[in-house]
Amino acid sequence: xxxxxxxxxxxxxxxxxxxxxxxxxxxxxxxxxxxxxxxxxxxxxxxxxxxxxxxxxxxxxxxxxxxxxxxxxxxxxxxxxxxxxxxxxxxxxxxxxxxxxxxxxxxxxxxxxxxxxxxxxxxxxxxxxxxxxxxxxxxxxxxxxxxxxxxxxxxxxxxxxxxxxxxxxxxxxxxxxxxxxxxxxxxxxxxxxxxxxxxxxxxxxxxxxxxxxxxxxxxxxxxxxxxxxxxxxxxxxxxxxxxxxxxxxxxxxxxxxxxxxxxxxxxxxxxxxxxxxxxxxxxxxxxxxxxxxxxxxxxxxxxxxxxxxxxxxxxxxxxxxxxxxxxxxxxxxxxxxxxxxxxxxxxxxxxxxxxxxxxxxxxxxxxxxxxxxxxxxxxxxxxxxxxxxxxxxxxxxxxxxxxxxxxxxxxxxxxxxxxxxxxxxxxxxxxxxxxxxxxxxxxxxxxxxxxxxxxxxxxxxxxxxxxxxxxxxxxxxxxxxxxxxxxxxx
Length: 490
Fold this sequence. Notes:
- The chain has helices at 3-15, 52-62, 88-98, 121-138, 153-156, 173-185, 214-226, 242-248, 251-258, 443-446; strands at residues 25-27, 33-36, 42-44, 66-72, 102-106, 144-147, 162-164, 197-199, 267-272, 279-283, 298-300, 305-308, 311-318, 324-331, 341-343, 350-352, 359-363, 371-373, 381-383, 386-389, 392-395, 398-406, 411-417, 425-431, 437-442, 456-460, 466-470, 472-477, 481-489.
- The chain has 490 residues and is α+β, with helices and mostly antiparallel strands.
- It is globular and about 75 Å long.
């Protein structure tokens, strides 16, 4: 991070006219700070910002954009820089002096302060966040206030404008969908409204040589729009492709869906499992627990199969844009090479027998399918060491984590209300499988209390196609893809 990088980003943002699509906030992340002076005032890093942040803020404003800064509710940030605890009024006044328009107040777990005796942590955190809220309001300068995911959404919605959700995002299909699953599981849609939003994170970088495919990224953007998440670009956005630019500047997705004045966050209304949605995953289930939903897996030394009942661990196929394969459970067949595995007793790794340089890995996220990786393993995944005991295969030294069949429904439909004069609903149809799936349904089975005879005109947001006027919908979605539809009642 530097003054030069920020100004370059501002200039490129203007060059691409991204501000005309609503991308107007230029936010500095952690590490812009250096220390505090003798009066307690926060100081910017003079090596990174030789002209100071007030000058930088003025430059950002001169280009018609807005200026955002990062801090932490504790006394130290995630990277060891000064946090705002105990200095809320001083920091708020300094932010106002610099012309700041948005403040992100994080809560780094490793630096989290201990609550006083008799006060629970969440109550203390709520108090600390409210102190900064009052300090910002006291400056008289309007500033968007963003708080961390470790807060209670019901409480912070009264003192802030945005709440972060889950971990930082990367350009990974499973990581991206895990964010959406977290929002749905925590029922965060009930808190979203004009003036308070659930922030699923900065839009993931688009990489032509890995990461997410174009279809995956369209799904990512569609979901962020439908879930009314703030749309923020990463610092390297100007290195992305024309495909990426066409996605993040889709006017209908932004104006009609994301910026709809009603502010109603879409919810999950439909889920369906298929054969391939039962991927093999690693969860925190206790391997030998009587309550464990699935029986243990065992390694067969004679057939080199990893088996549970009549199902065996099976390689399903490769995604064209990535160096990984999904694993599922299919009927055992000694003749198929896709079920041949090798449990290396020396390294405690499970290798694919056809090529022992490929090993099973697992995501650092809970309940995300394990994969077979070749080449460099992404930072969101890690090599796995396995052991076999009387209770089956488990992560070595972590016997509470086991292989099981599970995963997410293959087909999901998110539906949200719109206040648009023409469109009543937005529907995002998602195929989470790597294989094509047919999606077929009637709208009356998706939308509560809808008359069975209700017809809808349907418009595809990405193809600009008028699909027709129908009681329902029938479409084949390729693997890892989606369709985003605007609905008008007839």
